[in-house]
Amino acid sequence: MKLYYSPTSPYVRKVMVLLRETGQLDDVTLDSITPTPTDPPKRLLGTNPLTKIPALELTSGESLFDSRVICAYLDDRAGSGLYSQGTARWRTMTLEALADGILDAALLMTYENRLRPQDKYWDDWVQGQWHKIAGACGVLNTQWQDHLNGPLDMGQIALGCALGYVDFRHGARDWRAGNPALADWYLRFDSRPSMQETAPPAA
User: What are phi and psi of 97, to 5 degrees?
Assistant: First the structure.
């Protein structure tokens, strides 16, 4: 299999953490690529017509894209059960969706800060995205601790990668303020070898 990836992409990081946690890293060839909204790489078109990463080429010649699809496939391939079973599956998937929502908001903030011409910068838009992140962190701090402190699952992996990206690009905003339980969970989760080995390079 071939994975199109970038070491700074938080969506790719989800896949890389899962590969390490399930012992599949050696089954994948990594192809580094860095798409941007203003310069989508044409060589990705055959694998993902949206020219986004991660994108996974299977040995059959088929391709998968979107981090949730790829992670679900790799989890099924390994039989690792990171998406849980029965009714717990929906809670795991909801946590992954919430984590991806944090990532979506944080990435929009990054694009606004890095790609938008200064005279068109929209501060209210950025603040609105941050309010989504802050609100999600508050809920995670008070309502998700039983799940976060349970057996490893894909929701936890997604959240660890999401909070890591917020630190990476927006650390000065301090999502930890007022969220001690979430901060404590993340400190422990981030110490996992799979997280340490996939940490993005210094900005």
Answer: -65, -40
